[in-house]
Amino acid sequence: MTDRFLRLDVTVEGIMYSSSEQYRLLEVARAADQLGVDFIDTTEHVLMGLGALSSGQGWEMHHLEQPQPEALVTLAAMVGATSRIRILSAIAIAPLRPAGLLAKQVASLYALSRGRFVLGVTASWQKDEYDALRVAFAERGQVLDEVIGACRALWSSAPAAYHGKFENFEGMFCSPRPAPGERIPVWFGGKYTPRQVRRVVQMGDGWMPFGGLRMTVAEKAEAIQGFRAAYRAAGRDPSDFEVCDALSSVDDSLERSMDQIPALAEAGVSIVRIHLRRFSPGPDSALSTLEEIVKRFEPLRTIRVS
């Protein structure tokens, strides 16, 4: 078993800048690449609907028009703007895309980035978005399973076949695709449930618990041990299992918030995700805040992931 050390992921979002200044997301990506950040990610909603206002997610009317550039397009631009940093979708709402389209997009990003792309996926929560894109909201969990299962089929063989309720094809070719022995990492976001454990073990490579799940550090540690036990039972190496967890804000203080990191690593979190917008006073402070995050994280890189 190879020693693993804690790594840093920084989240950059369109809401950080006005619609006319979305190009500044690429400035942050370049800076993160140069500063030695391990991962950069962006969030996703394809469309927002009025139903979000009563969903219990805390959305308000002005949020519905906040800039949210399409995630995979944005990440593709980040691939072109960087050379070293890994690019993460955090998170792509996978059921909103047909498997063939998602497989092609992700395989293309993986090839163009020379293997730096990681696909983070979830089923998400907004019914309006599903309805507008003509995807069954009530069955989104099964759709997610089939989309990723079909992607795995398209990435692993040619011609590929997959037969399910929502994804059904035979004799299909997806190129480019990973070379033999290569694997596109897929990290699943969402609650710790038996179904989530099954999908991660069968099709995935990691878990992304969201702050909205309101899990304690002890609960996360127990869940991580559950995933690792399931990995071992399935004949997979649990040291390959990644956990990318978002850092919660403590009094809007970066210093106090980052004080939580050693406990997260002790629980089994291997990648700490920090939302740049939460700690940056405004758009013109993003780069200096990023530099401060990197400076404070540097001593934590010696922490071995348990």
What does this structure look like?
With 306 residues, the chain is an alpha/beta fold. It is 38% helix and 16% strand. The strands form two sheets. The protein has an eight-stranded parallel β-barrel with strand order 1-2-3-4-7-8-9-10, surrounded by six helices. Helix 1 links the parallel strand 1 and strand 2. Helix 7 packs parallel to helix 9. The relative contact order is 0.15.
The 3D shape can be described as globular
**Taking strands numbered 1, 2, ... along the chain, how are they ordered across the largest sheet?**
1-2-3-4-7-8-9-10
How many helices? Answer: 11
Q: What fraction of the residues are assigned to beta strands by DSSP? A: 15-25%
State the end-to-end distance. Answer: 12 Å
Cα-atom radius of gyration: 19 Å
Amount of helix: 25-40%
Which structural category do the helix and sheet elements fall into? Answer: alpha/beta
Tell me how many strands there are: 10
Query: Which regions contain 5 or more consecutive residues with pLDDT less than 50?
Result: none
Mean pLDDT: 96
List the helices and strands in order: EHEHEHEHHEEEHEHEHHEHH
Largest sheet: 8 strands, parallel, barrel
